[in-house]
Design brief:
Shape: globular
Radius of gyration: 16 Å
Number of helices: 8
Largest sheet: 4 strands, mixed
Number of strands: 4
Distance between the termini: 25 Å
Strand content: 5-15%
């Protein structure tokens, strides 16, 4: 059954709304935090922000989790040498944060831990502290990756550190 309120929220979300929560300075800080983080471990973190779903996806009831898994694949977060990629996905229209971990790190960290990281970020976002919430989530994920995937001698940067803004109808 179609949730008309959700569909309308996605349909009428302005394409620039993400800029209120994540201005250029916040995106720069997130990029720097991801880069600094990846010096501490053998994992990769990717941060993606999607304003709203394409109307057809919202109409079909695609959940934030389903979309995050699609983004995990599209952004090739799974394509790391040690299967240690982690996607932090934000679906702003639904106020949803999803963390998708590749099988290497997912085998080491319980789903409840990822959910706790997302809840901590959500609490900061509810207070309007988007940059701080994002940075605290990155820091916690970095700690988990450092614990389970310490850096080796050769630690290439396999994924872009810049947050990706997902355009409506792409990927």
């Amino acid at each position: 059954m179609v949730n008309f309120r959700r569909w309308a929220r996605h349909l009428f979300m302005p394409p620039w709304a993400w800029r209120r929560a994540f201005p250029q300075a916040a995106l720069d800080a997130i990029e720097a935090a991801v880069g600094d983080s990846e010096m501490r471990h053998g994992g990769e973190i990717r941060f993606a922000i999607e304003n709203s779903l394409a109307p057809a996806l919202a109409w079909r009831g695609v959940s934030g989790r389903e979309r995050a898994i699609e983004m995990f694949s599209s952004l090739r977060v799974w394509d790391t040498e040690h299967n240690s990629g982690v996607l932090i996905y934000l679906l702003l229209a639904d106020h949803d944060i999803e963390i998708v971990a590749d099988r290497g790190i997912a085998a080491c960290v319980a789903p409840a831990v990822w959910e706790q990281v997302a809840q901590t970020m959500e609490a900061a976002f509810r207070d309007g502290r988007f940059e701080q919430g994002a940075l605290s989530g990155i820091a916690r994920i970095s700690d988990l990756l450092a614990e389970h995937f310490p850096p080796s001698g050769d630690n290439p940067d396999e994924l872009a550190n810049r947050p990706v803004i997902v355009p409506r109808g792409r990927y």
